[in-house]
Design goal:
- The complex is a heterodimer.
- By secondary structure, chain A is mostly helical.
- Chain A has eleven helices and no strands.
- Chain A starts with a helix and ends with a helix.
- Chain B is an alpha+beta fold.
- In chain B, helix 3 packs across helix 4.
- Chain B is extended, with a radius of gyration of 22 Å.
- Classes of the chains: A mainly alpha, B alpha+beta.
- The interface between A and B is large, with 62 and 55 residues.
Chain lengths: 191, 265
């Protein structure tokens, strides 16, 4: 019985998934990292950190060569590269006025933003066409848009998003909250 | 079913479309860009990560032993296990596995000289990584342990009230996963690794709630706790051992005692 089990463990198919992912996306990941980090060593650091994060959630990844996985990898790599660049420039995070407005204003149920799979944000899109919605979504800041994509399109929970983006769960909720506030502003909802 | 899309569908489709288009454009650009020249360090690091992820993935995908036709009678719990794996069970196990990291990530090989380790005795020390989130375990061997050819695995007795759900073994690693009969979310993962002749570095989570050392059969064992997950780690000669679980500490200590006894005698 044990021999049969071990034979199963050592099949090529089982061995190759992460390697396939690496070979499929390493070039794309370097291309993204290089856009922010011209030094090849920095780009390598960003890409290896991205692979490490992907490996942490690898069991959640189904098909390797598909747009969904590619999008996930683009987001992770870009965020890591931008973080690294910011660290190098020693940038102090700027105060985000729109986020402050959200905090000062209506108390939004932060955790529900993620747990209800975007019911609040989704409601704003009732009756809209995808083409019209694209314009609104594209106008959102990248980090807000990335978080919304991971939450609403990839169906990841706040903990998983936090792990992928290297931020806290609270930061995930804040970004979703900020996205909702901005969408409300742009779509002209009064309530 | 109505053909009209709900707001949720519109949001989901829109986000997917935005990222699909952007991803496709980046992919086209990347295909035209020159092939990146990868350093040796990067390639080695990636190779280690690929290997460790492959092993973890294999362990994750394995059905419980009862699922194998040759195992005879199918355990009634087995049919329930697959759906559980996809939700809470898997997440719970992932939390456990994340902390094992010892069995998971063999990082960059570090020459002994570069680390300034000149004394020749078996043991290990922990160094906090610059990121403050993980430990580097630095160990050295005295070359008096078994060679890889002589390396034999120690399979501890299954703790009472548990059963073996998965087992992985090759010429230098053994990983056994035990699941509590009464609660499939209670998991123990035991691993034994051959660590070769050189000092190496590995990663252990440093964000523990509690850390302490225990002496088990005269062997210094590093113990840590984070939430409900406990981990015991020790090194002897050229082998490392790790027990990680979300069960009572006394069960883990008994398991460690049995392994340490067998190591000595």
């Amino acid at each position: 019985m044990l021999e049969a089990l071990l034979a199963k463990l050592n099949t090529e198919e089982d061995r190759s998934r992460f390697r396939v992912l690496y070979e499929t996306y390493v070039r794309l990941m370097f291309h993204i990292a290089n856009q922010y980090l011209p030094d090849p060593r920095d780009a390598e650091e960003a890409v290896s950190e991205a692979f490490f994060r992907i490996s942490e959630l690898f069991s959640e990844i189904g098909e390797i060569d598909c747009p969904k996985t590619r999008n996930l990898i683009v987001i992770i790599t870009r965020n890591i590269a931008k973080d690294l660049l910011r660290k190098q420039k020693r940038q102090v995070p700027t105060v985000d006025l729109s986020l402050l407005r959200a905090e000062e204003g209506e108390e939004l149920p932060l955790e529900e933003l993620a747990s209800d799979q975007g019911a609040g944000a989704a409601k704003l899109f009732d009756g809209m066409m995808v083409q019209d919605a694209m314009e609104v979504i594209c106008g959102l800041p990248e980090k807000v848009r990335d978080t919304m994509y991971l939450c609403y399109a990839e169906d990841l929970d706040a903990e998983e998003i936090a792990a992928l983006l290297g931020i806290t769960k609270d930061a995930v909720y804040k970004r979703l909250q900020r996205g909702l506030v901005m969408l409300r502003e742009r779509l002209g909802e009064d309530d | 079913m109505t053909e009209e899309m709900t707001g949720r569908d519109v949001l989901k489709h829109t986000l997917a479309q935005v990222y699909d288009e952007e991803g496709a454009a980046l992919e086209r650009e990347a295909a035209k860009a020159p092939q990146p020249k990868l350093s040796e360090t990067f390639t080695e690091r990636m190779e280690a990560l690929i290997r460790s992820t492959e092993e973890r993935e294999r362990l994750e995908q394995l059905p419980p032993l009862q699922a194998w036709p040759s195992a005879g009678v199918v355990h009634p719990q087995m049919e329930e296990l697959q759906p559980i794996r996809k939700t809470g069970w898997r997440r719970s196990k992932r939390a456990v596995r994340r902390l094992i990291v010892v069995a998971v990530l063999l990082a960059v090989m570090v020459p002994i000289g570069a680390l300034g380790l000149h004394q020749s005795h078996a043991g290990f020390r922990l160094e906090l990584e610059p990121d403050g989130r993980s430990y580097r375990v630095i160990y050295q061997t005295d070359n008096r342990g078994p060679s890889l050819k002589e390396f034999t695995t120690i399979k501890p007795k299954t703790p009472k009230g548990f059963h073996i759900s998965n087992i992985f073994e090759n010429d230098r690693d053994l990983i056994i996963e035990y699941i509590m009969d009464a609660d499939s979310k209670k998991v123990i993962i035991f691993s034994q690794d051959y660590i070769g002749d050189n000092a190496q570095s590995m990663h252990i989570d440093a964000e523990n709630d509690e850390e302490w050392y225990e002496s088990i059969e005269g062997i210094r064992v590093f113990c840590s706790r984070k939430d409900d997950v406990l981990e015991l780690f020790w090194v002897t000669e050229n082998q490392s051992f790790d027990i990680c679980a979300n069960v009572d500490f006394t069960i883990l200590r008994m398991l460690a005692e049995e392994v340490c006894e067998r190591l000595i005698y």
